[in-house]
From TrEMBL:
It comes from the Bacteria. InterPro entries: Cro/C1-type_HTH, Lambda_DNA-bd_dom_sf. This is HTH cro/C1-type domain-containing protein. One of its GO terms (molecular function) is DNA binding. CDD domains: HTH_XRE. It holds the Pfam family HTH_31. SMART domains: HTH_XRE. SUPFAM superfamilies: lambda repressor-like DNA-binding domains. Residues 24-57 form the HTH cro/C1-type domain. It comes from Bacillus amyloliquefaciens (strain ATCC 23350 / DSM 7 / BCRC 11601 / CCUG 28519 / NBRC 15535 / NRRL B-14393 / F).
C-alpha cells in the first residue's frame, strides 16, 4: 500500500490524527502485538482500536501522542513522520519550541538545509515542514512551524554566540 502525503496540507493535530490512525494496524503488526495488547498499551478499548483499524473512526489526540512516543522507532511511523516522530508531534502540539533540547541525528535524511549562520543552521522537515535550529554539535535549539520566527531566532542565537566570543 502506497502512502501519499499531501505536502500542501498544514501539519496540525487533525492531520496527525488521520495520518497515525491510518497506520495504526501496521504499527501494531510491526511490533507483533495483538489488538488486546495494543489497546492496553495506548489506553484504548479493544472495540475502539478495531474501529480505528477498520477505518470507521479516528484515534483521539492523546492516543496519537502515545503512539508517537511509545512506537517512535517504528519503521511505519518513521516512514510517514520522519526519523523522530516525537519531535514532529511536539512541534505540532506546541507550534514553537525554544530551548536547547539535546542531541539529534543532524538532519541528513529528513531535513532540508535552509540557512547557516556561524555554528547554527536552520533546517526544514521534509514531511511536516516545521523548522528547527541545530548547532555544530547537532544539538536542537529551536523548533517552530513559523519560518519568520525561526529566522529571527537564528539571528539571535548567532549574535549571542558572537558576543560570547568577545
Amino acid at each position: 500500500m502506497a502512502i501519499l502525503i499531501n505536502m500542501e496540507v498544514e501539519m496540525d493535530q487533525d492531520y496527525m490524527t488521520e495520518l497515525v490512525s491510518v497506520q495504526l494496524k501496521k504499527i501494531r503488526s510491526e511490533r507483533g502485538y495483538t489488538q488486546e495488547k495494543m489497546a492496553d498499551v495506548i489506553g484504548l478499548s479493544k472495540k475502539a482500536l478495531v474501529q480505528i483499524e477498520k477505518g470507521r473512526a479516528l484515534a483521539e489526540w492523546p492516543h496519537v501522542v502515545a503512539v508517537c512516543a511509545l512506537f517512535r522507532s517504528s519503521e511505519t511511523l518513521q516512514s510517514v513522520l520522519g526519523d523522530d516522530p516525537l519531535e514532529v508531534i511536539e512541534a505540532v502540539a506546541h507550534r514553537t519550541i525554544d530551548r536547547p533540547k539535546g542531541k539529534t541525528m543532524g538532519g541528513r535524511v529528513w531535513w532540508k538545509a535552509i540557512e547557516k549562520k556561524g555554528e547554527f543552521r536552520l533546517q526544514q522537515h521534509l514531511i511536516s515542514h516545521h523548522y528547527r535550529i541545530l548547532d555544530s554539535y547537532d544539538d536542537l535549539w529551536f523548533s517552530s512551524f513559523e519560518k519568520a520566527d525561526a529566522l529571527e531566532r537564528l539571528d539571535e542565537l548567532f549574535l549571542e554566540a558572537e558576543e560570547a566570543k568577545r
